[in-house]
Amino acid sequence: MMETKYLIIGSSHAALEALRAIRQADRDGSMTMLTRDGHMPYSPTILPYVVSGRSAPDRAILRDETFFAANGCAFVGNATAVGLDAKGKTVALADGRSWRYDKLLIATGAAPAIPPVPGLDGSVPFHVLRSLDDAMSLRNAMGAARRAVVLGGGLVGLHAAENLAEAGLAVSVVEMRPHVLPGYFDAKASGRIEAAFTEHGVKLFLGRTVVAVDAPDGRSCTVRLDDGGAIEADLLLVATGVKPVADWLSGSGVAVDRGVLVDDTMRTNLPDVWAAGDVAQAKDFHSGTQALIGIIPTAVEQGRLAGMDMAGDSYLKPYAGGVPINTYRFFGRVALSIGQAAADGCGEVAEQEGGGYRRVVLADGRLVGYASVDEPFDVGIMGELIRRRVDLSGCKEDFLSRPLETGRRLMSEGWR
Amino acid sequence: MGTAFDTIAFKASACDGCGKCMTACAEAKQGASRISIVSGAGEGRFELSLCRQCGDPKCAMVCPAGALAKDEASGVIRWDANQCVDCLLCTAGCSFGGISVDSHTARVAKCDQCDGDPACVKACPTGALEWVTAGSVFKKYGDREDMFVPGLSGCQGCNSELIMRHAMRKIGRNAVLATPPGCIPGMGSVGYNGKTGTKVPVFHPLLTNTASMLAGIRRYYDRIGRKDIVVMALAGDGGTSDCGFHAVSGAAERGEKVLYVCVDNEGYMNTGMQRSSTTPFGSWTSTTPVGEHMRGKTQDAKNLPLIMVAHKCAYVATASTGYMEDLYAKLDKAVEASFRGFSYLHIYSPCPTGWRIPSSKVIEACRMSVDSNFVTLWEYTREGGLRFTRSPDRPIPIRDYVKLLGKYRHLDEAQLDHIQARVDEQVALLRMMAAEPVAAE
User: Fold this and answer.
1) Residue B438: pLDDT above 70?
2) For chain B, what are the domain ranges?
3) Do domains B7-132 and B144-435 have the same CATH topology?
4) Would the CB atoms of A62 and B95 count as touching at under 8 Å?
5) Nearest by CB to A296, which of B64, B85, B100?
6) Looking at CA atoms only, how far is residue B28 from chain A in angstroms?
7) Domain A340-415 indexed as CATH 3.40.225
8) Checking CA distances to A294, which of A126, B15, B380, B398 falls within 20 to 30 Å?
9) Alpha-carbon span B93 to B32, nearest angstrom
């Protein structure tokens, strides 16, 4: 049995940020980071760029051995946690080893959620895109393929679809919702993005669900849609979302809903067990209820808070809640979204359509959401205005006509 | 020592929105300007958005590609164009608009401080943008030998300790130091239990004879041929402008080769915050109380550094810990001048206890005292006359400064007007003196 004061399971943004926060308050406490991955830490967000060749796999690495040595943290790859005994304070690994901890952070992230469709149970080969190995395998497969089908019109699916199309494949995207990137963008914004894909020859099947996938010859496959249509493909990518990696906690007593439930300092219901990042179901800023917001900024913030709390840092301030953020590049263009930007009926909506498109959602004189396509804005500034609930009633006209300038002005006044 | 970095500072009150900084930046970077001046609240007011080179950079934390990192040497958040995948998440991390999309390149762009020579600052005609090198100063001198004991018992937030430690770090071991009664010996420079609190010879003269004793020490060193010793005082305003004034004036008049540093906290703070002749009009002190009839000090402060100019000293200068790079440059000149004649450095140093300001606001008070012209930064030599080392143009109103200080909480409109008028008058006089440099003798 190995022993460590701080045990961090996972090695992406939440885990790395927790490490940093712990080391700020506790220079010497022994620390160990376990990850089921075989590589040094990297970000899942980089993977589409590994597929496209923009980022080489070895350059995607965020921290190297030198970093872990300098920070007094043992890094253990290929270590899949399979069980937690919170009373005995031990974590069991798939290879039979186990670790005893004083404080545990669950940052196991998320894994692809495969829809219950006949054919996707393993009988038909398909790709997913969540790990570096997934990305390299997809990149290799691209070369030999001519026709690709992407299931899911979210960020991962669209990024991949663009990469595949740019690589010369005939690409189709199937999305069950009526628009791509649902939740982040309203119909008009999504419409611009969809048009760009269509222009680049990507076929979009929106509002369609897949009823079956079959592969009679074992190589190419047929994707059958609910309207009777069928798409042939020799490369299938399933990007229909992710689900937290929390199965290994069953029977441990850790409360899990869709993800691991945590309070405002990222504590689970069990003593000395924290969770952060994509695996955690923490407070949503808008609703105040616990929700999954699987993006880097929330992972970073949650990881930081968890690390501070684990190390007893007195500067800890409770979590304000996650705000959805999406920064998206497609075919060289820019789409950005923060907060309740796609919402209807939650306040006042101001849309502006010229060269670019923007949508500002206000409630009670305060910004709650902002999205744009082809018109970049300072996402971080708008995020601060949302999180601080800055009253814009005194400068509403300025804000709506010149949001970028006015946002900068408000923040400049705030920090001077 | 800790880490401190040089920075681009912005003085909103001096900005007229001309936009020359943005043009210069766009030109220097061959792309979108990294600095952005936007309209402020109200006519003629402007605000800034620019990378603050955070110590805890969120842009770097949220970067999935490892393309952003803080440079340990310069403090600049470096952007690696090759590593960046253009995901724009960094723009979501920044609360200041410091990293944003450059529409020329469709990539993010941020300030890199032009490697220590920022084009925007050079292009700014009003002094609203300033390249502040205090960070380098702290780093450089922080590594030098400290000449005082570790535990000086100054009040929390007091800048006198900063002045003492940094001045002596710069001057080094070849010095003889006089610390007449006041806060400086009070906090331990003369030592306890028969041991001194400094690594240089230190003594505790009377309030009245500091300059005379130093004059004697210098003459002795001259006689034995030691030309490398800095003979100096770290004195308070009371010991300089009141009780010790005759000695200071006499030594200056005789041209004694002495470095006299006056740390002016506007009163006898060490003994219970009594007024001195440098206590400004309207100030509360324990001897100029505020009550039903009395409203603080009824006389204006004596401008001691100007009086020292009238002595035609080898060097006279004013300084503030809010502008350390200025203070350091003057300290160099003052030390050099002290081998030629009487050298006088007047350092304004707010007293958090006696002025009733939170310790966290002391540096802000220093800066606002200068920004409002309550304190003016200048230097004088016989050859060059008087010159401002920091422009007194476009000051902030004196009210903005005094409202920071508890000792002025009682001021009424008439008193505020009086202070503003005296500050304006003082600056007008200095401007006249600065306009016509004295010809070399």
Assistant:
1) no
2) 7-132, 144-435
3) no
4) no
5) B64
6) 23
7) no
8) A126
9) 20
**Residues in chain B within 8 Å Cβ distance of A327:** 87-89, 91-92
- CATH 3.50.50.60 location in chain A: 2-111+243-310, 132-240
Residues B79-96 have a mean pLDDT of 95
CA distance A88 to chain B (A): 34
| Residue in A201, A130, A210, A203 with CA at minimum distance from that of residue A166 | A201
CB contact under 8 A, A43 and B64: yes
Q: Are strands A2-9 and A98-106 parallel, antiparallel or unpaired?
A: parallel
Residue pLDDT, tens place only, B358-402 = 999 999 999 999 999 999 999 999 999 999 999 999 899 999 999
Q: What interface predicted TM-score (ipTM) does this complex get? A: 0.93
Greatest Cα pair distance, chain B, in angstroms, is 73
DSSP assignment, residue B195? B
Best interface-test mutation with B: which of A20, A40, A51, A55 has the largest number of B CBs within 10 A? A55
Q: Cα distance from A380 to chain B (closest Cα, Å)?
A: 4
- Nearest by Cα to B343 from B248, B428, B430, B276: B248
Q: Which of A13, A167, A162 is nearest to B62 (CA)?
A: A13
DSSP A391: B
Which numeric CATH code is attached to B7-132?
3.30.70.20
φ, ψ for residue B132 (rounded to 5)?
-95, 120
B62 interfaces chain A, CB cutoff of 8 Å: yes
Rounded to 5 degrees, what angle do the CA atoms B110, B112, B114 make?
130
The string of pLDDT tens digits covering residues B73-83 is 899 999 999 99
B316 forms bridges with which residues in the sheet?
Answer: B344, B380
The structural architecture, per CATH, of the domain A132-240 is 3-Layer(bba) Sandwich (3.50)
Q: Which two tokens stand for residue A280?
A: 């955690």
Q: Calculate how close chain A gets to B63, using CA atoms only, in Å.
A: 8
Pairing of strands B230-236, B259-264: parallel
Q: Does domain A2-111+243-310 have CATH number 3.50.50.60?
A: yes
Assign domain B144-435 one CATH number from 3.40.50.970, 3.30.930.10, 3.40.50.2000, 3.40.50.11740: 3.40.50.970
